[in-house]
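#dry-run=false #mode=assembly
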Amino acid sequence: MQLLFSELTVFVLAIFVGFEVISKVPSMLHTPLMSATNAIHGIVVVGAMLVAGAAIGGAVGHAIGLAAMVLATINVVGGFAVTERMLEMFKGKPGSR
Amino acid sequence: MTLTQVILTIAYLITAILFILGLKFLSSPKSARRGNILAMVGMLIAVVATGFDTHILSWTDIVIGAVIGAPIGFISARLVKMTAMPQMVALFNGAGGGAAALVSSGEFLRLLKSASTPTWDLVLPIVLSSIIGSISFSGSLIAFAKLQELMTGRPITYVGQQVVNSVVLLGIVGLAGFLLAGNVAPAPFALLVAAALLLGILSVLPIGGADMPVVISLLNSFTGLAVAITGFALNNTVLIISGTLVGASGTFLTMAMATAMNRSVGNVLFGAFGAVKQAAGAATGAPGGGTVRSASADDVATLLAYSRSVIIAPGYGMAVAQAQHAVRELAQNLEKRGVDVKFAIHPVAGRMPGHMNVLLAEANVPYDQLKEMDEINPQFEHADVALVIGANDVTNPAARSVANSPIYGMPILDVDKAANVVVLKRSMNPGFAGIDNPLYENPKTMMLFGDAKDSVSKLAAGVAAA
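#status=ok
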C-alpha cells in the first residue's frame, strides 16, 4: 500500500511537468507533438518485455506476451520513424535564419 | 536493493529525463528534431536496461514479437502519405493502447496463478489499465476506419444510443467492482475486456469526421493514461512518468481543439455533430438560396497576379485533393511577382491538430509563412485576396452572426474581411458539418469549382503566364 502512494506522488508530479512542458509547444508543431508522445507511450514495450519474458506459461500466457510485444514494437518503431519523417520537413525560409 | 535494481532505477530515471527534455525541445521547429532523437535515446536506454531485469526468464517471445513488430512499424511509417497521417497516428495509438491492455492481462494471469488471494491495491491498476487500454485500442481502430474511409465518416447514430452506451459502461463498472471484491477469475476479466472493447467502438461511432482532431487527441491521452496505470500494476516508475506525460499532452491538445471549436469535450463526444444538419438545413432552406458568383481559373489567376497581398486559407479539402504541392507552386509564382503570400491556419482545419502545417511543410512551404488564427485575423482587412482552398466551416461567417447555427460562437478565419474572396470548392455541397455558408453568397466572393489540385495548378500556371 505504501508503494501505491509513493507511485501516486510520482504520477501527480508528472501531470504537472507534462502540462508545463507541453503548453509551450506552438500549434504549428501539434501534429509532431502528438506523434512524438505517441512514440513515448511506446515505453509500454518495457512492460511487454517483462510480461513476454516472465514465462507465465500456457498457450494464453504466450499469446498475451507475444501480442503485447508485437503491438508495443509497432508503436515504438512506427511512432519515432513517423515523427522523424515529419520533423525533417519543417524548414524555415532559406537563408533567413 | 540488488545492484541490478539500482542500475535499472537509474536507467529509468535517465529515460524519464530524456523524454521530458525531448518534449521541451519540441517547442521550436529548430530544436524539434533533436527532441525526437533525445526521446529515441531514452527509449533505447529503457529497453536495454530492461534486458538485464532478472524477471526475464525467456527471450523467445520477446525476440519473435520485436522481429514481427519492428518492420511493420518502420515500413508503414516510411510509406504512409502525409495526407494519411491522421489515420496512421490513430493506428499507432491503438497499438499502444492494445499493448497496455495486454500487459495488464498478463499481470492478471500471473495473479491467477499465485497461491494467495490478491488484495485490491494489486487488482485495481490491472483492471483500470485493461479497461482504458481496450477502449483506446478499439476506439482508435474505428477512428482509423473512418479516416481511411473504410466506413462512413459521418456520425452513426440510432435511437437509444446513449442508453446502450450507458448500459455497457455500467456493466464495466459492475464487473470491475466484482473483480475488486476479491473474485479474481478469468471469466469476469475476459468479459470486462470485451465490454471495454465494445465501449470503445460504440463511443467513436457517433463522432463525425470534422471532430476527429478532438477524438484523436483524446484517444492519445487515453493510451498515455493506460500506460501510466500499467506502470502502477508493474510497479515501474518509467511507465508511470512517461504514460502520464502523454496523458497530459493528449488532454492539453483535446482541450485546445475543443476551445478552437467553442464546444465542450462532452458536446463533441456526445453531440453527434453533423447529424443535426437536417434540422439546420431545413430551417435555412436549400443551399444556394442566394446568388453565387462563379469564376474561371483565368479570372482568378489575373486577380491574384495583380494583387499586393494574398492570404491562403487551407482546409481538409486541400488534403483530400493532395493539392499541397500545387499550392506551394502557386505561392512561389505569386512571390516571384512580388505578391506578399501568407497562410492562415485554423487550429481545427483538417483531421488532427496541426494537420495543415504538416502538409504544407511536406510541400516545402517555409514555416515562417504559416500564421496562426489570432495573428492572421487582423491582417485580412489589408489583404487584396483571401484564397480559401477546401476549407468551409472554419471560414463560415454564420459562426459570428447566426445565433441558431450549430457552429455559432466558433472562432473563425475572417476571410470575408479581405477585399476579394476566392473559394475553391468541388461543388456547392455544404461542408462536412452540413451547414450553409453565407460566405459563398457574399458579393465579394468568387467561386472556382472543381478539384482543388486541378484548380490550383491552373492558377499557378495562369499566374506564371500573366
